[in-house]
Every structure is written in structure tokens, then in C-alpha cells.
Design a protein that fits this description.
Helix content is about 35%, strand content about 15%. The protein contains 13 helices and 15 strands. α8 links the parallel β8 and β9. α5 packs across α9. The longest helix has 27 residues.
């Protein structure tokens, strides 16, 4: 499968057929299929048999080059013009490379992170510095779960989280959401069927832009209260540029939890720095495993982050970025609504537009000069849609983009051809 000899969706032989072909017992063949399912390589469909997964883990493909002149709204990155300038800070910075035996984390960065978490009511164990939000999520999963454990995920949700779970041998359990985050009823049903962990995005949810408000956070907190051993992971990847306050489900009574907050969207993706806190055991395990692997996140990067964060203009720039992204989201959602097109985007850098046929819409918009992302890789059971990343979408472009959306969504006249 990983060599590409079996195509995604290709049906595999029945257990007894495979056993006879390989001259092994049916139990051995069934065990092999179970292992492949846990690893995310195959999908079992009951009487429908077993087939190769449509999205096998660790299969990476480069996106095809975009046509010259196409507006790239398929990538979910920030606007470079809304990030603090590195050159002006680094030029005056006296960097101190750390050596073995010295403290691996910058004390000033830990203090800044602690202060930011405390403002949002997030108080936990030691703070770990990790190499990005997904790196933090992976480290928590490795520290706390075992192969085969069930993890609740948002559906639609971030496709790399889905792939990460498959690669770790964990089972993703899709839970629906609306503009205010996970649906409490669906979460409750998933918990009753059994969950070992839950990954949620409190704001700037990718791909829908969903964000918790106080009422939804309180409701979800009540739902999970009866499950104190549930591992709760909050991925706050957008942080202060999300455009909404941070509401957390963590607090007294939670035995296993972690919150990861990345700096990529508001200080720069290439810095690859995020910080993580959680209960004492989770935070300690994350740091312990980190020592056995990478050791630490480059202290040079940490010093640069501190300098950027502490610069007077950065705070005002973060506020400007949050307002700018909100204006861009609101403009697109408003223009689409004026044309009768449903769209979601309460926070963050994306707008989610439900459609009937993703491929048709993506191709039609590309012909009109817009590159957007098909929703398939972001979905498990949810319905088709496309993701529009508004990081670089100017507010004045929203009306033209909405008009092009309307044209490609308009009913097409049926014709008969021989």
C-alpha cells in the first residue's frame, strides 16, 4: 500500500481468501487486517469488506503548482504584512547560543507564556516549549495514549490531526460542530460509547472558523464533567489573532488535560515555536520524552520570539491583525449571504462554504482565478464543502469572489448529447 501498488479505495480479499492465498490461518489473516485498520491503512466496512484507506497515513503529496495569476486562497497562513518584521529585531539582538548542561528553555519566554495562560484562566503544571501546535498535540498523544485508543475529533476538522491519529494507531471518532464548536449532544453520545481522549479547537477552528462562546464552553464542560479521566487536548493554534476570546474546558476536576498555543499565526510560521501546559503528569511526560528526542526547541528561536513579543509595536500589530482578519471574514460571509450562499467563519483564517460538488466548485473557481481547498480531506462524515483561507484576501475582493461562487453554484441547464 505504501509503495502505491494498491490504490486508495481498492477492495482487499476476504479473510479466508487471503488466508488460503498466503497459506496461513484465518485468525492470522484477520489479525493482520485488524493491525492495518488500527494503523489507518485500511477501512473495514462490515459486509462490504475491507478496502485501502482513501487517506493512508504518512502519504504526502505536493500540491500541484497554481496557474500564473491565480489568487491562492487554499493555504491557511497569515498575511506576511501583519507579522512583526524579523530584521529590525534580530539586527539589534545579542543572541546567546545555549550549550549542553544549560537551561534549555528561555526563562523570559516561560514567564510570557505563563502570563498569557493565566489571563485566560488556564493554570496547570510546568510549561513546555514545543515545535508548533501539531508537535505539541502529538507529544501529548504519545505521552498519554496507547495504540487502539479512541479519540474524539471535530468533523469537519484539521486533516493533519486525522492523519496523525492514523499514524499513531489511534481511532478517530468524528463529532459534529456548528459555529460555536462541538455539539454537546453528539459529544455526549460519543462519550457514552467510549472515548479515551478529545481534541478540540477552542477558536479559529480549521476549517470552519468555529469558536466557543461562554455558553457553549459551559455546556461542554458539563458534558465532560462525568468523565474526569478523559484526556482533553485544546489546540489553540491561532491564539490572539483568532478574533474571539479564549474559552477553555479545563479547570478543577480534570485529571488529564493539555492546552497548546502556537505563535505561528501571529509572530511567524517559520519560527516553529509553541508552548504547552497541562496537568503535572502530562506536562512532565511531554518534557521527559522531549529530552530523549530533540532535546529542546532551539534557544536561539526562543530568544527571537521573546524579542519580537516584547517589542512595543507587536502588541498593537496583533490587535490590528485580529481586526483585519475579522473584517475579511465578515466581508466574504456577508457578500455570500447576499447571494443566498451559506458560509461559516466566526474566527480565524478560514471560511467554510457548503457545496454539493467540491471538485466542480474548486475547478470552476480556479478557472475564474481563485484557488480554494476542497473539503474532502477535512471531513470524515460531514457533508461536502470548500475552504477559503482569508489570510491574504482583501475585503474589496470579497464581492467578486462571492459573485464567482454564485456563478459556479448556479443550476446548469441540462442538455442532451449523442
Amino acid at each position: 500500500m505504501l509503495r502505491g501498488e494498491l490504490a486508495p479505495g481498492e477492495r482487499l480479499p476476504a479473510v479466508r481468501v487471503l488466508a488460503a492465498r498466503l497459506r496461513v490461518s484465518a485468525a492470522t489473516a484477520a489479525s493482520a487486517y485488524r493491525y492495518l485498520k488500527i494503523r489507518g491503512l485500511v477501512v473495514a466496512e462490515g459486509r462490504g469488506g475491507t478496502s485501502v484507506s482513501q487517506q493512508p497515513p504518512l502519504a504526502t503529496r505536493l500540491a500541484p503548482p497554481l496557474p500564473v495569476g491565480a489568487r491562492n486562497l487554499a493555504e491557511g497562513g497569515p498575511d506576511p504584512r501583519l507579522l512583526p518584521a524579523l530584521d529590525s529585531v534580530v539586527a539589534h539582538l545579542r543572541l546567546h547560543p545555549r550549550m549542553y548542561g544549560e537551561p534549555y528553555n528561555d526563562a523570559r519566554l516561560l514567564e510570557l507564556a505563563q502570563r498569557m495562560f493565566a489571563v485566560d484562566g488556564i493554570v496547570g503544571g510546568p510549561i513546555a516549549i514545543v515545535g508548533g501546535a501539531l508537535d505539541g498535540v502529538e507529544r501529548v498523544l504519545r505521552a498519554r495514549l496507547r495504540v487502539g485508543d479512541r479519540v474524539g475529533v471535530e468533523d469537519p476538522g484539521y486533516h493533519l490531526v486525522f492523519d496523525l491519529l492514523k499514524a499513531l494507531g489511534l481511532s478517530a471518532v468524528p463529532i459534529g460542530l456548528d459555529g460555536f464548536g462541538l455539539l454537546p449532544g453528539q459529544l455526549g453520545q460519543a462519550l457514552k460509547r467510549g472515548l479515551d481522549a478529545l481534541i478540540l479547537t477552542p477558536r479559529a477552528q480549521n476549517p470552519t472558523g468555529a469558536a466557543l462562546d461562554r455558553a457553549r464552553a459551559d455546556e461542554l464542560r458539563r458534558v465532560i464533567r462525568a468523565y474526569p479521566e478523559l484526556l482533553l487536548i485544546e489546540d489553540d493554534h491561532a491564539g490572539p489573532i483568532a478574533g474571539t476570546p479564549a474559552f477553555t474546558l479545563t479547570g478543577p476536576g480534570r485529571a488529564r488535560w493539555a492546552v497548546v498555543r502556537s505563535l505561528s499565526k501571529w509572530l511567524g510560521p517559520d519560527l516553529r515555536v509553541a508552548f504547552l501546559t497541562g496537568d503535572e503528569l502530562t506536562s512532565g511526560r511531554v518534557e521527559g520524552w522531549q529530552r530523549l528526542g530533540t532535546g529542546w526547541v532551539s534557544n536561539l528561536l526562543q530568544q527571537i520570539v521573546v524579542a519580537l513579543w516584547s517589542t512595543g509595536g507587536t502588541v498593537s500589530l496583533i490587535g490590528k491583525a485580529a481586526k483585519t482578519y475579522q473584517a475579511r471574514r465578515d466581508a466574504l460571509v456577508r457578500e455570500l449571504a447576499c447571494l443566498g450562499i451559506e458560509a461559516y467563519g466566526r474566527s480565524g483564517l478560514n471560511v467554510w462554504v457548503p457545496v454539493a460538488e467540491e471538485v466542480v466548485v474548486v475547478r470552476s473557481l480556479l478557472e475564474a482565478g481563485w484557488a480554494v481547498a476542497a473539503g474532502e480531506r477535512f471531513r470524515i462524515r460531514s457533508t461536502p464543502a470548500v475552504r477559503v483561507s482569508i489570510g491574504n484576501l482583501q475585503a474589496f475582493e470579497a464581492r467578486r469572489l462571492a459573485a464567482d461562487f454564485a456563478r459556479c453554484l448556479a443550476p446548469r441547464r441540462a442538455v442532451y448529447s449523442a
